[in-house]
């Protein structure tokens, strides 16, 4: 199958002198609605309503853009006009719109969810303007709402990569989307998420998210991957990228086999959010170009086939997931040389079609 590839890459640059971060997925801002205008008691005039603060979803936006456009992170809507003899019903203040990327959750400081912005032009009011002065308020304009709100970004990607550092995720992303992420034999080269888009000849496309590699304890905020585990929640399916040679974080760390990697990654996801194990998952066995024979592959397939018995006899109980991924497909690949990468793309496409059909049937069933 022939297809073209492109990438929308989150740029890695300093975020100004105030915030030296290449990628922002959280932002806290102050919002205040405009004050209502005073009424005119003598003539029964009503003051104008204060402007409100709205949040609206826009494509091709990032939280970095939001930050750079307003470094003080203060948003104040305009006040309503005062009533006067020539205009008893005064004009309201203008609303102030904050454009944000899709996939934003709006939270209060206490964690309360205000709303979510998932589609283009989705919007919500985060601070109402004050009422204009009238007889109920003795014709005094009322102050607008004022509060701190938090923007929490969860990337909207069709496919989310899951893997240890140095498993070849960035190399695979480079092969699938022909971008140039930082690639190195040293773990933790990927320091921030990257979004790639695969586009087929017939116009179909899907997005893939490469996240910083997980380590044991990521669910407890250890390592770079801990900060980005939340992005897997929005992925339609998970792609496990596993190094067939196993993984060793450092010389003092134990060497993990390919099956160990699957077990421990599954446990990390389960500890972070058990519902992640209900997602459709595909296994990509990477770096097969480094194999001298089929021994390691045979051992991995045997372990996957007999995982219940092996978990019971060979693993500590604390590392045994309560549930285990049943991979819809297993693909042997070499991200470095592109071996079977076209086949992997085709499988991902079919799997996303299956996901869409399941969702459609689920909606129809719920309407009955």
UniProtKB/TrEMBL annotation:
Key word Nucleotide-binding present: yes
Alphabetical keyword list: GTP-binding, Nucleotide-binding
One of the record's GO molecular function terms: GTP binding
Natural source organism: Rotaria magnacalcarata
Protein name (Swiss-Prot/TrEMBL): GTP-binding protein 10
Keyword Cell membrane: no
GO cellular component: mitochondrion
Domain Obg: 21-156
Source superkingdom: Eukaryota
Biological process per Gene Ontology, one example term: ribosome biogenesis
Segments forming domain OBG-type G: 157-353
Xref: SUPFAM superfamilies: Obg GTP-binding protein N-terminal domain (SSF82051), P-loop containing nucleoside triphosphate hydrolases (SSF52540)
């Amino acid at each position: 199958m022939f297809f073209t590839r492109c990438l929308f890459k989150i740029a890695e640059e300093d975020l100004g002198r105030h915030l030296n971060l290449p990628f922002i997925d959280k932002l806290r801002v102050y919002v205040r609605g405009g004050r209502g205008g005073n009424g005119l008691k003598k003539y029964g005039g009503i003051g104008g309503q204060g402007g409100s603060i709205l949040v609206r979803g826009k494509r091709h936006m990032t939280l970095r853009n939001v930050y750079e456009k307003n470094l003080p992170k203060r948003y104040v809507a305009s006040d309503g006009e005062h009533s006067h003899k020539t205009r008893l019903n005064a004009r309201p203040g203008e609303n102030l719109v904050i454009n944000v990327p899709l996939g934003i959750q709006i939270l209060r400081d206490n964690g309360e969810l205000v709303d979510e912005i998932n589609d283009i032009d989705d919007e919500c009011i985060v601070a109402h303007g004050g009422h204009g002065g009238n007889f109920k308020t003795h014709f005094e304009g009322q102050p607008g709402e004022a509060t701190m709100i938090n923007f929490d970004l969860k990337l909207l990607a069709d496919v989310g990569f899951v893997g240890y550092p140095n498993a070849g995720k960035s190399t695979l992303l480079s092969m699938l989307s022909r971008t140039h992420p930082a690639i190195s034999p040293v773990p933790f080269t990927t320091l921030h998420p990257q979004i790639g888009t695969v586009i087929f000849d017939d116009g179909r496309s899907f997005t893939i998210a490469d996240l910083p590699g997980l380590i044991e304890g990521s669910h407890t905020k250890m390592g770079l991957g801990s900060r980005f585990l939340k992005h897997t929640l929005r992925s339609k399916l998970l792609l496990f990228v596993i190094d067939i040679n196993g993984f060793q974080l450092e010389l003092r760390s134990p060497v993990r086999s390919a099956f160990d990697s699957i077990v421990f990654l599954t446990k990390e996801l389960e500890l972070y959010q058990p519902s992640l194990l209900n997602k459709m998952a595909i296994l990509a066995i990477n770096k097969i170009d480094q194999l001298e024979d089929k021994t390691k592959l045979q051992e991995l397939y045997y372990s996957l086939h007999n995982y219940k018995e092996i978990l019971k006899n060979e693993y500590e109980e604390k590392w045994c997931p309560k549930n285990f991924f049943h991979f819809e497909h297993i693909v042997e690949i070499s991200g470095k040389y592109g071996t079977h990468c076209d086949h992997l793309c085709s499988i991902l496409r079919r799997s996303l079609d299956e996901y869409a059909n399941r969702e459609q049937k689920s909606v129809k069933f719920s309407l009955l």
